[in-house]
C-alpha cells in the first residue's frame, strides 16, 4: 500500500461507520461519490453491535485520503513521508 514510511493504521474501536473514507476514496478513483467503488471498505460484521471492520481492497494505493478525511480516528497514518 504505497509508501511504507507512511503506513495506514486501522483503529476499529474509533470507527463509527460514517463511510466518509469510502466516499472520499471512491471520488479519487471515479470522480463520483460511490462507496461501492472505494478501495477502503467499512463493514458491520456483527450487525447491531456498533463495531465496524475497516478493510482495504487490492486497488488501495496507500494515498492516505481515507485517513485525512476520517473525523473519528478510525484510519490514521504514521511515520514521516519522504
Which short descriptors sum up this protein?
2 helices; 82 residues; single chain; alpha+beta
Could you walk me through the main structural features you see in this protein, from its secondary elements to its overall organization?
The protein is of the alpha+beta class and 82 residues long. The protein has one domain. Helix content is 20%, strand content 17%. It has 2 helices and 4 strands, in the order βαββαβ. The strands form 2 sheets. Strands 1-4 form a two-stranded antiparallel ribbon. The chain has a two-stranded antiparallel ribbon with strand order 2-3. It is globular. The model has no long low-confidence stretch (mean pLDDT 87).
Hey, roughly how much beta strand do the residues contain?
A: 15-25%
**What are the secondary-structure elements, in order, as H or E?**
EHEEHE
The number of helical elements comes to 2
The overall pLDDT, averaged over residues, is: 87
Q: Report how far the terminal alpha carbons are from each other.
A: 15 Å
Poorly predicted ranges (pLDDT <50, ≥5 residues)?
none
**Tally of distinct domains:** 1
What is the strand tally?
Answer: 4
> What structural class do the secondary elements suggest?
alpha+beta
List the helices and strands and how they pair.
Layout (H helix, E strand, L loop, with lengths): L7 E3 L9 H11 L9 E4 L9 E4 L8 H5 L5 E3 L5
Antiparallel strand pairs: 1-4, 2-3
Amino acid at each position: 500500500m504505497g509508501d511504507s514510511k507512511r503506513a495506514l493504521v486501522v483503529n476499529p474501536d474509533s470507527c463509527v461507520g460514517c463511510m466518509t473514507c469510502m466516499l472520499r476514496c471512491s471520488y479519487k478513483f471515479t470522480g463520483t461519490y460511490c462507496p461501492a467503488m472505494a478501495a477502503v471498505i467499512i463493514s458491520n460484521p456483527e450487525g447491531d453491535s456498533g463495531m465496524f471492520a475497516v478493510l482495504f481492497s487490492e486497488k488501495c494505493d496507500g494515498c492516505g485520503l481515507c485517513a485525512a478525511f476520517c473525523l473519528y480516528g478510525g484510519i490514521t497514518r504514521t511515520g514521516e513521508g519522504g
